[in-house]
């Protein structure tokens, strides 16, 4: 009931919310993620008590600074690729003589990272996010998972100063430099000089990486992930490592991501053939 109660509170305050499958970053079967976010309390009242919760940041007029911190999951596997977004943001603030605005609403993620929430003065032109705006720092302007959702057996936790608690509705407005980090175009890759790989003689691994980054949208997600899974397992990757890699690929390069149950079904099906 805690998740549904939070969803109703947010919706009543005008923040659109959407459901997630239990313990997952993907929507329940038959749902479509942030694209169906709502403030309709009658609809939210029908949601399962065990579902997780996300916010449609774009419609809410908010953004989130997502800071990774090095750590491990409950199985001892490294998360966040060893990146330390907290350290990178601190160095950026010192270098540019800037400060984060206050008061600020924040949540701790299940793997020890931080989500810093800010309101926007002006709405974004479209839902967007910037991966690695700084090393280990993503800026989200499309959607985000929020407390009390659980991932990998651990919850998202509201971080509060007992002396001065801050609600998500009272968080500070994002300064322009944060908005600029989100909306600035990615620097185009311009190789200094071509080599044999740039002339079309790509390796097997190079072709695989290109295919992964290309990603997939609705309508081709299952076939695309089936192909990627077969390629990764066919290359001799340990099944446990392949499973974690495929889950990350689904989350990052498929829009919207497949439900965990579909990912598991694809993985088990391909594993039996290898």
Features:
274 residues; Prim-pol fold; six-stranded antiparallel beta sheet; three-stranded antiparallel beta sheet
Describe the protein.
This protein is an alpha+beta fold and 274 residues long. The chain folds into two domains: 2-183, 2-Layer Sandwich (Prim-pol fold), CATH 3.30.2250; 196-273, no CATH class. Helices cover 34% and strands 19% of the residues. The chain has nine helices and 15 strands. The chain has helices at residues 2-12, 41-44, 57-60, 85-96, 176-183, 204-214, 221-234, 239-253, 260-273, and strands at 17-20, 52-56, 62-67, 71-72, 78-79, 105-108, 114-119, 129-134, 137-140, 143-145, 150-151, 154-155, 157-159, 216-217, 254-255. The strands form five sheets. Strands 8-9-3-7-6-13 form a six-stranded antiparallel sheet. Strands 1-2-10 form a three-stranded antiparallel sheet. A hairpin with a 2-residue loop joins β11 (150-151) and β12. α7 runs antiparallel to α8, α7 (221-234) crosses α9 (260-273) and α8 (239-253) crosses α9. The termini are far apart. The model has no long low-confidence stretch (mean pLDDT 87).
What is the CA-CA span between the terminal residues? 43 Å
Strand order of the largest sheet: 8-9-3-7-6-13
Q: Which residues form runs of ≥5 with pLDDT under 50? A: none
Gross morphology is: globular
Write down the Rg: 20 Å
Class of the largest domain in CATH?
Alpha Beta
Give the number of DSSP strands. 15
Average pLDDT number: 87
The helix/strand class is alpha+beta
Helix content: 25-40%
What is the tally of helical segments?
9
Q: Which architecture name of the largest domain does CATH use?
A: 2-Layer Sandwich
- The CATH topology of the largest domain is Prim-pol fold
What proportion strand? Answer: 15-25%
The profile of the biggest β sheet is: 6 strands, antiparallel
Order of helices and strands: HEHEHEEEHEEEEEEEEHHEHHEH
Number of domains: 2
